[in-house]
Design brief:
Blueprint lengths: L1 H15 L9 E2 L8 H13 L8 E4 L12 H12 L3 E2 L10 E10 L2 E8 L2 E10 L2 E4 L4 E3 L4
Parallel strand pairs: 1-4, 2-3, 2-4
Antiparallel strand pairs: 4-5, 5-6, 6-7, 6-8
Helix pairs in contact: 2-3
Length: 148
């Protein structure tokens, strides 16, 4: 119980670190490339919980300049997963009217992986354990509405 409370407190503190003005996605370079498909599936799942597939166009914020994983498979896998789930995905740099703004941040956290997904200003954060079987939730999902 104490560990769950500590994880929840950590999630809230880390969620507060996401600056509303940050307009880039980020994947920490220490995240193993072998986790790409599992990371993408977790990101797509978080988006799918917030947006209806058939009626939504998603504008993914690209990985920031200088991100070591700029050319990694994570952005392509996220876009592929969204399309497979029935979403329209705007091409990077193309402004689409009524597209939902989405960015994701993936970073290590004490041997686990913290995934934060922002969908139209709503932050969804969750800690996962990475095993050979996939990503396993290690915390409850934390959701924070924007104070716009």
């Amino acid at each position: 119980m104490r560990r769950a409370a500590s994880l929840a407190a950590l999630l809230l503190l880390l969620a507060a670190c996401v600056r509303p003005g940050a307009r880039q996605s980020f994947v920490d370079p220490s995240i193993p490339a072998t986790a790409t498909d599992r990371l993408a599936a977790a990101i797509v799942s978080a988006i799918a919980e917030r947006l209806p597939a058939a009626a939504s166009t998603v504008a993914l914020e690209p990985l920031g300049q200088g991100n070591a994983l700029q050319g990694s498979g994570v952005p392509a896998e996220v876009a592929r997963g969204l399309r497979a789930a029935g979403y329209a995905v705007a091409e990077p740099g193309v402004k689409v009217t009524d597209a939902h703004d989405v960015r994701y941040l993936v970073s290590p956290d004490n041997g686990q992986i913290l995934i934060r997904v922002t969908v139209d200003g709503v932050l969804i954060a969750r800690v996962f354990g990475l095993t050979t079987d996939g990503l396993n939730p290690a915390s409850a999902e934390s959701v924070r509405e924007s104070s716009r």
